[in-house]
């Protein structure tokens, strides 16, 4: 009998705003590309449609901005962070 596996998706395990906050805090220690990838994961966990609505952007533009290789503007990143229930801080 063959063993069936599936890809691990962190988004399936981010269930609360606190989970998302901790996840993004850890991701902020990495590269900008890693942080954008983490924003994508967190947005998928909350629901892209809901995040796009809260951020005031279209769902399609949110997908494009947060896709691998995407180069979102700072205003977009800031809006997404706020939509996820987080705040941007410099320490």
From TrEMBL:
Organism: Candidatus Electrothrix aarhusensis
GO molecular function, one term: DNA binding
Domain of life: Bacteria
SUPFAM superfamilies, sorted: lambda repressor-like DNA-binding domains
Protein name according to UniProt: Putative addiction module antidote protein
